[in-house]
Write a structure and sequence with these properties.
The protein is of the alpha+beta class and about 160 residues long. Helix content is about 50%, strand content about 25%. Strands 1, 2, 3 and 4 form a 4-stranded antiparallel beta sheet that branches. It is elongated.
Length: about 160
C-alpha cells in the first residue's frame, strides 16, 4: 500500500514546489513607459468633468461595397472589395448620405489611383500601405464634406485573385 502512495505523494510535492518556484521567481511588473503614461494623462484630460455632456462620434456606413480591379500586364489579375464607414461629427451622418454619390465617386478615384500605383499588390494589408490609403480617402472625404469628417474606417477588405 505504501509503495502505491509514494509516487502520488512525490507528484503532489513536486507540483507544490513548482507552483511555489513559479510564484516567487515571476518577473517584477514593469513600470509604465513614458508613452503609456502620456497616453493615460491625455485620456484623463479628454475625460469630461462631472456634469459635462459626453459627445460621442457618429459613424456613417457607406451603403455598398467598393469593387476595384487590380491590373497586371493589361489584364485583371485580382479584384479588391472594400467597405467603409466615416467617423463624423454628431448629426452629420444625414449629410453623408445626402452626398453619398459624390463621395463614392471621389473614393473610387482614390481607390483606382491606389490600385494603379501598386497599392493592392503584394502585401496590401501592410500597416504603412493602409495608412496611405486612409489618408487619401480622408482627404477626399474632407473635400466633399469639409471638417465634419474625422476619420475613414476600412471595415472590410478582401482580395480575390483570378
Amino acid at each position: 500500500m505504501v509503495k502505491k502512495l509514494i509516487p502520488v505523494i512525490l507528484g503532489i510535492i513536486g507540483l507544490l514546489i513548482g507552483a511555489g518556484a513559479g510564484f516567487f521567481l515571476r518577473p517584477a511588473p514593469e513600470p509604465a513607459a513614458e508613452g503609456e503614461a502620456a497616453a493615460a494623462d491625455a485620456h484623463a484630460a479628454e475625460t469630461p468633468a462631472e456634469g459635462e455632456a459626453v459627445v460621442l462620434p457618429e459613424f456613417a456606413k457607406l451603403q455598398n461595397q467598393f469593387v476595384v480591379p487590380v491590373m497586371e500586364g493589361g489584364k485583371i489579375s485580382a479584384m479588391v472589395i472594400l467597405s467603409f464607414s466615416l467617423e463624423v461629427e454628431t448629426g452629420a451622418s444625414v449629410e453623408v448620405y445626402a452626398v453619398e454619390p459624390k463621395l463614392r465617386d471621389m473614393f473610387l478615384q482614390v481607390l483606382f489611383d491606389h490600385a494603379n500605383a501598386g497599392g493592392f499588390a503584394g502585401v496590401y494589408t501592410d500597416g504603412a500601405n493602409l495608412v496611405i490609403l486612409r489618408e487619401a480617402l480622408l482627404e477626399a472625404a474632407k473635400s466633399v464634406l469639409g471638417e465634419k469628417v474625422k476619420d475613414v474606417l476600412i471595415t472590410d477588405l478582401v482580395r480575390q485573385d483570378s
